[in-house]
Design brief:
Blueprint (H helix, E strand, L loop, with lengths): L1 H35 L5 H12 L4 H39 E2 L2 E2 L1 E7 L6 E7 L3 H9 L9 H7 L3 E7 L12 E4 L4 E4 H11 L8 E7 L2 E7 L4 H12 L6 H10 L4 E6 L13 E4 L4 E4 L5 H12 L8 H14 L2 H17 L3 H14 L8 H7 L6 E4 L1 H9 L5 E3 L5 E3 L3 H5 L5 E4 H30 L4 E7 L3 H4 L6 H6 L15 E8 L8 H14 L15 E6 L2 E7 L4 E3 L1 H8 L11 H12 L18 E4 L4 H11 L3 H14 E6 L2 E6 L12 E4 L11
Length: about 700
Amino acid sequence: MGNNIKNQHYKNMGIRLQMDTLTFEAESIAYTVCQHFGIDTSEYSFGYIAGWSSGRDMKELKSSLDTIRRTASELITGIEGQLQELRRDRELMQDMSINGQEKESLLLIQNSDLSEYSLVNVRGMDAAELVEALSAMNDNDRLSAAAYLETRGAWTTEIANQDTKEFGKYHLDVRYNTDTNEVIDIKAEMELNERAKEPIGADDVILKITHSHGFEVERITNKTPEGVQEIMAALTKLEDKNTQNIRDCLKSCGADYIPVIVGGGRNSGMPQFNDFEIDLVKKEITMMRHLSPAKQAEGIINRLEFARTAFSDDERNLIVNYAFKLNDMEKTRELAEHIYYEEAEGSQGAALAVIDAQAEIDALPDPMIGLWEMEEYGYTWGEMLPLTQERALELFDHDLPVYLLHEDGSETLIQGREQVTEYGGIFGIEKADWENEKSLRALQEELAEGRASMEAQLLYGDSDKYGIYQLKDIPEMRQFQFAGTESLKRRGIIKDNLDAIKPENYNLVYVGELSGLQGRTQSATLEAVYEKFNIDHPADYKGHSLSVSDIVVLHEDGKNSAHFVDSFGFTGLPDFMRELEGVEEREKGETEPEARQEEAQDISGHDVQKSEPAFEDLEDEDEIIDRGDEKDQVLAQMKKSLKGEQETELAFQVADRFISIQEVDGGYDYSIMGVDYKEIDGAYMIIRMSVSEKPLTSF
């Protein structure tokens, strides 16, 4: 039993010695670690360590020192790691504080159609840092963007998703599209939206880029058209043609660009326009200058109106029509810019520019065809103006030189109407010929304006006047010059009421004062006018001697009347006068037919002496037969001439001036009507003329 007690005593002593050693080692480790981190424990530790180490052999001390050194080193390393992490967190917290507020961003992680999304609160990063971090993700990182951001030192908390559907009430900072890998800084995007609404600069180049996810219209502010073509070449070499890569390519090419229109996004409802278009899917490039003038003009208008609507519909149509008709895009651009800036300033210059541009269009010979159409057809000589078939016929009938234009650039002068009607191509007239024709027409218009003023003085002047009207010198009217009312009736040109004798077929050739010519009756006044304009022409009178088919208008005591110079005397023309004065059709019925007939009879029955008209255009076969002044000889000659239809008609024409001819059983009855042979120097002339059978519906 004594041995057992002895053994237990030694065992307890060993445990106590072991515990003392462990305590010594722990104290020494603590001292060492604290000393490393600057914590002074010497007052406590040194006494304890010294007390334990006394009496210990070197082997035991060395073993404990190894333990102390190894354990202290492990602790120091571990503590330093923790301290470093704490230090980093402390620094991060300091960085997170900007003006007393913690860095925080709202990130929307979404697919394209928003069927899946996650709204995440990101603490520790502002929007720019968040965009930078997300843009640096690789394919593995994209599997969980929130977890990736945690590894970058951010704290993330999901606020909403497609199930909660609450993200709309939050102000987003960053969007990340998981389908396209596009990262959008919302604030920067808003700034871009404002810039994208600015007017397009004159030197900006507009590039439309179409790719598999949509399209963008880029406004490039620092590149020439040639530089943009180099950018398009670089874009075609991209392997992955997504939005981000396209924008990265633009940046790498040094382009200062603004996406002014983004399909389904920014300004997507605005009208599109561009200088260049590249389709990265089809690998096609289109330049605006290769489009039709109408398309180019629309692009110019849309470009100018991108920031502000200015043009009216009429102005837009004019600009497009101007481009199509004149085929000059530089002038079209200048016109559009002029009108736009005048409208923007609210000045009257826009209206003047429109008038001038319309005048240029109207100066072309044919409003139905333009220079671009002729160029597309294949004819490009700059001194030729295009015509449609209808216009070519019209100008050819007016004796103008008109050409058939051919697709090989050649032309053929037209010799006959059948060439025009049988040709299916484009026609033309030389600029010089058309300019001459315009000058002639301008002169005619000037004369017409002078006539209008003269006519107003005649019809509405304060003094009594007379006016001489003569048939227009055009082919359609020549066969009716010097024809009386009876002849016109027989040929079916006019009816008994004479309403087919129209002012539109006459020119006012002279207006004079009635003082000195007025007689006691209207008939006497007309006789005086007739005599003056056959015997004593005024010096400034340019018409022919007053003859059958002319009209005399009298303005007496504020009233107007028209009188047809007939084969015998004058015939009143109340309808002619009403139309000349512009009286409405409904007012014509106010004068009874009987009254008009009486008016005509009163004047036409008066015997007015006349001399022969001056026929200047006699054909070679025309024959002047001098029969003297014997009535019997005249009648004999008239009877001999009635051998055929043409001769009969010729006889009627002559007889309208000198002979009354009536058809009776078995032939014709003739009688001489008021001819004063002395007025024609003792000679009576029968004029044989060729007669056209071409009918005229309105005389």
